[in-house]
Design goal:
The chain is of the alpha+beta class and about 625 residues long. The strands form five sheets. It has a five-stranded antiparallel sheet. The chain has a five-stranded antiparallel sheet with strand order 7-6-10-9-8, with helices on both faces. It has a five-stranded antiparallel sheet with strand order 12-11-15-14-13. The longest helix has about 45 residues. About 0% of the residues have low confidence.
Length: about 625
């Protein structure tokens, strides 16, 4: 470098070299004619020229060709009136590298006077990377600005005083103001009604605590109309981390809010309808579990509160013998089919009810079945009335046949019985076998007479409604007491102890004759199938809104095999046939029919060889 300076006659300026090398930027020193007198080594990194190659050349060598004349004029003007120009004010200047590439540079100018002559010193920085970053940032800023200006969302920035400092056109259109009208406004003063200011103020406090959040807020337009916006708010921090304002993106959800309000009102209206209607409504999921229902559903099945929630309807609301029909219907729902059908269900207390069900599949957004909805109407009374009508119709059709049976069977049987009894009373001349034959005839005709009477009675019940309304209110205490008195002689004859515990004053509505027959059948069986020295106990009491009758004996009992068929017609155990050959096997069947006709229940407990207990209960 010193030799280059010597060749150019610039040895006097060489003392500046160490100072220039200490500068962290490129340095070019030129005289008033623009001739380069000094450069530091960093110039080579910027322009690609060796420092010694630049000594004595004009500075325009480092300027693009199309800018050189203009630069020369600016250089001469600066030489005539040199002034310091700080780094940064020279942006927009371009330099020319040795390889011909134009690069952006930043230049600071100052004037120095070493050895009494005036020189210009240019401090040069290659800002290629910075310019590239600035261009990228500018392009990104323009892209986002275009997005903000063209999107359907409104964007706004407020300062620390909660005044609008920037926003897009969408905000203006959303509120009906011009930009000049909105600029500088406090959002709490103009954009919300007085009754909505506190809620917005609370959200703004979140911004000033450095919190971001999203919320729904009601605002007011210029014309006074209210709009609903979904707002996403974010605090804005300065370089020191202090909050200087907030940024908000706002989406107009007024139409959606009105639709949601209308839907909510509609849902409330339909819910009130479902909760107050006489029909039961229920929703089940894909697994058949109850997920929602109205109060009528609880009432229909005898449940309370949320006891039905989660209950599998196949397991919990139908008897085992009715499950297959319900399962078939649920399969239709899973195939997307709606249907109406009658189904028998079971209440919590075990009582059966009939319901007309309208089932509809429920689909998710993908069109897949996710469950089903059912509307149920209790048709139990209708079904029972229809069954009663059918029985009455059958009774009318069979009335003539029953009359014929009564006449054709009873008359010859009565004749045979009277004839046999007459011969027995007169006595006959003949063998002992003849007398035995007559006794057998008399015994069998008596048995046939009982059998015909029981058959006609059962047939009459089969063809008439067992639920015919009772027509008489009478003292059940008196009826049971009378039956005990009537059977006391038979019990004494059989050497049995007959005891009664009858609570006085128990009245019931029903058919006096039918109930008397039922009580007499039970007491008669307890005596007939007992053993000498045994006991028969009859108890009548009222409790919990019901009347309870118990007939207990210490007789032969019933074995486990025969117990399930004790109420079946013509079913008699071996022991019963042995103790009472004339029995018909219809007595308990008649008792069961009488009890059920009076909406009652009957159950039996027995152990072979230890006795039998019959428990009856009737509504009071």
């Amino acid at each position: 470098m010193k030799r280059a300076l010597a060749r150019a006659g610039l040895e006097a300026e060489s003392f500046l070299l160490p100072l220039l090398e200490a500068v962290p930027a490129g340095v070019v020193v030129a005289d008033s004619g623009g001739r380069i007198v000094l450069v530091n080594s960093r110039i080579e990194g910027i322009f690609g020229h060796a420092p010694e190659a630049l000594i004595g050349k004009t500075v325009e060598l480092l300027i693009p060709r199309d800018k050189r004349n203009a630069h020369a004029r600016s250089r001469r003007a600066y030489a005539a009136s040199p002034k310091t120009r700080e780094m940064g004010r020279g942006r927009g200047i371009c330099g020319l590298r040795k390889d011909g590439k134009v690069i952006p540079i930043e230049v600071g100018l100052s004037s120095i006077r070493p050895n009494g002559r005036t020189l210009s010193m240019a401090t040069i920085i290659d800002i290629t990377d910075r310019k590239r970053a600035e261009d990228a940032l500018r392009a990104s800023e323009q892209k986002y600005r275009r997005f903000i200006e063209t999107t359907q969302e409104a964007f706004a920035e407020i300062d620390k005083n909660k005044r609008l400092v920037s926003f897009n056109d969408r905000l203006c259109r959303m509120f009906g103001y011009s930009k000049s009208e909105l600029l500088g406004w406090k959002v709490l003063d103009r954009l919300v009604s007085p009754e909505d200011r506190e809620s917005l103020a609370n959200h703004l406090r979140n911004r000033w605590r450095g919190e971001s959040d999203s919320f729904v807020q009601r605002y007011s337009k210029k014309n006074g109309e209210h709009i609903w916006l979904m707002v996403s708010g974010t605090p804005i921090f300065n370089e020191k981390g202090a909050i200087q304002g907030a940024f908000a993106m706002m989406t107009d959800i007024t139409a959606r809010k009105h639709a949601e309000d209308a839907l909510r009102a509609s849902e409330s209206r339909y819910r009130r309808f479902i909760e107050t209607t006489h029909e039961a409504f229920g929703e089940i999921d894909a697994a058949g579990r109850m997920v929602s229902f109205n109060e009528r559903m609880n009432q229909m099945f005898g449940y309370r509160g949320n006891q039905l929630l989660g209950l599998n309807i196949v397991d919990g609301l139908v008897s085992p013998e009715d499950r297959e029909t319900l399962v078939n219907q649920l399969r239709k729902r899973k195939r997307g089919q709606a249907d109406s059908y009658a189904q028998r269900f079971v209440k919590k207390n075990g009582e059966h009810i009939w319901a007309m069900v309208t089932g509809t599949p429920i689909l998710n957004d993908a069109g897949e079945v996710r469950g089903s909805f059912a509307m149920m109407t209790d048709i139990t009374d209708r079904v029972r009335a229809r069954e009663a009508e059918e029985k009455v119709a059958r009774a009318l059709a069979c009335k003539e046949i029953l009359a014929d049976i009564s006449h054709e069977l009873r008359t010859p049987i009565a004749t045979l019985r009277i004839a046999a009894e007459t011969l027995l009373r007169r006595g006959i001349s003949g063998s002992k076998d003849d007398a035995l034959i007559l006794k057998t005839i008399a015994h069998q005709t008596e048995r046939l007479s009982k059998l015909v009477s029981n058959l006609i009675q059962l047939a009459g019940r089969d063809f008439t409604s067992p639920a015919a309304p009772p027509t008489e209110r009478f003292s059940l205490s008196g009826l049971v007491g009378g039956c005990l008195r009537d059977h006391s002689f038979l019990a004494k004859e059989k050497r049995l102890v007959l005891r009664g515990r009858v609570e006085p004053g128990i009245n019931i509505r029903g058919n006096r004759d039918e109930l008397r027959q039922a009580v007499e059948n039970l007491i008669d069986n307890a005596i007939q199938y007992n053993r000498p020295g045994g006991k028969v106990e009859v108890a009548l009491r009222a409790a919990a809104g019901a009347v309870h009758l118990r007939v207990r004996d210490t007789g032969i009992g019933i074995n486990k095999k025969d117990a399930p068929k004790v109420f079946a017609r013509f079913r008699r155990t071996r022991g019963a046939r042995r103790l009472n050959p004339s029995g018909t096997g219809l007595g308990l069947a008649i008792v069961q029919q009488v009890v059920e006709a009076h909406r009652g229940r009957i159950s039996v407990k027995s152990r072979s060889g230890e006795g039998t207990t019959f428990d009856l209960s009737f509504p009071k």
